[in-house]
Design goal:
globular
């Protein structure tokens, strides 16, 4: 049966402007596109075992938003033994959309905002399938300490998770239920209507 909620897990680095892009994508999902239907969780409370956040990645399918080559979101989930239901890899989405990440870290400039909206749209399409398709099956996962998950250069997270790219920048994780990625005109309209104000912030300085 379809699930009640989907957990969104953006990368959370502060040293790279792409982290502000993935976080903004998470906020757009949580506040505009799928309000009340997604749970937005960050990396630190999960790897430190904060009960509410840990429950969110165990009880719901997780869509991880990896920002860069470090793949911090995927690596953090691997560290606690959780397999994502889906993964978006920002550099691949960027290559498709041609939207630059930008250089601001507190809040992205317009190009980064557009990239965040592209990430949010893809994630919302995946989440809607999980929420609404009666054939989508998800079994609760159990978090566990995974010392082998400590990131080093020898760990290939792509192989570890068994990622398979099903659309540009969009990956399925081995062992998890397949999802559909279908265009949704209503979702596109909502995205354009409800977050249009971001495009008016071109002169915003942090």
């Amino acid at each position: 049966m379809a699930v009640d909620k989907v957990t969104i897990f953006p990368c959370g680095g502060i040293g790279d402007p792409v982290s502000s892009v993935t976080r903004l994508a998470g906020y757009i999902l949580d506040e505009d596109l799928l309000a009340g239907r997604v749970v937005l969780v960050s990396i630190p409370p999960v790897i430190t075992g904060v009960p509410e956040e840990l429950e969110a990645v165990q009880a719901n399918p997780v869509i991880v938003l990896d920002g860069c080559g470090h793949r911090c979101g995927s690596n953090a989930l691997n560290l606690v033994g959780i397999r994502p239901a889906a993964r978006l890899f920002t550099p691949r989405v960027r290559s498709e959309t041609k939207h630059a990440i930008g250089r601001r870290r507190p809040f992205p400039e317009v190009s980064g905002q557009k990239l965040a909206k592209a990430l949010a749209e893809k994630a919302a399409l995946i989440a809607k399938n999980m929420l609404e398709d009666p054939d989508y099956l998800f079994e609760r996962q159990g978090a566990r300490a995974n010392p082998q998950g400590l990131h080093d250069e020898s760990l290939n997270i792509e192989e570890t998770m068994g990622y398979e790219e099903v659309d540009v920048g969009c990956f399925h994780c081995a062992g998890m239920c397949p999802f559909k990625l279908e265009k949704d005109p209503e979702l596109r309209r909502k995205l354009e209507d409800e977050v249009r104000e971001f495009e008016e912030l071109e002169g915003f300085e942090c």
